[in-house]
Design goal:
five-stranded antiparallel sheet; mainly beta; four-stranded antiparallel sheet; globular
């Protein structure tokens, strides 16, 4: 089955929630799909500022993301974990961008690159949410860096995988 839809926006104001169509007249770009194919995250200027929106393809409605988009920061380059619980992205609210992680379950934002030197771009999160890879310009060229969030985080996995015992 092939699903084709163009992404464009409706009216200025707050980010859309509830049943909605993806079509709009605003700029929508940098799409990312969750591993299970249910959620679509993308960067848009639908609400009057540049931010990340998430759309539930099954329910055909936008997902509320409290505390993700701030008026004083530009968010871009989203990447989703398997079920879309975790969103990793670049946020620029000062002179230098940071890699941030948003947890939809707790509605909390965590800065992952605090204390890092250099520039960052194009983050990508592993399906389980443990690893984040991104480009860094620390050495004067673009290199890859892998960040391990550690073994004690709550992994993002389908419900059926959580109920099975580990081998």
């Amino acid at each position: 089955m092939l699903l084709v839809s163009s992404l464009v926006a409706c009216t200025p104001g707050s980010a859309p929630t509830g049943p909605a169509d993806l079509d709009s007249r605003y700029n929508d770009e940098q799409p990312a799909l969750s591993g299970d194919g249910r959620f679509l995250a993308f960067v848009s200027n639908r609400d009057g500022s540049r931010g990340i929106l998430m759309y539930d393809l099954r329910q055909r409605q936008f997902v509320n993301l409290p505390r993700l988009n701030r008026r004083d920061a530009i968010a871009e380059s989203p990447s989703l974990s398997y079920t879309g619980r975790y969103i990793v992205y670049v946020a620029s609210d000062r002179a230098r961008p940071e890699i941030e992680l948003y947890d939809r379950a707790t509605q909390q934002v965590q800065v992952l690159t605090a204390g890092y030197r250099g520039w960052f771009r194009h983050p990508s999160i592993s399906p389980d949410g443990r690893y984040i890879v991104f480009e860094t310009g620390i050495r004067g060229q673009w290199d890859l860096e892998l960040l391990d969030r550690g073994p004690n985080i709550e992994l993002d996995s389908p419900d059926f995988a959580r109920s099975r015992p580990s081998p």
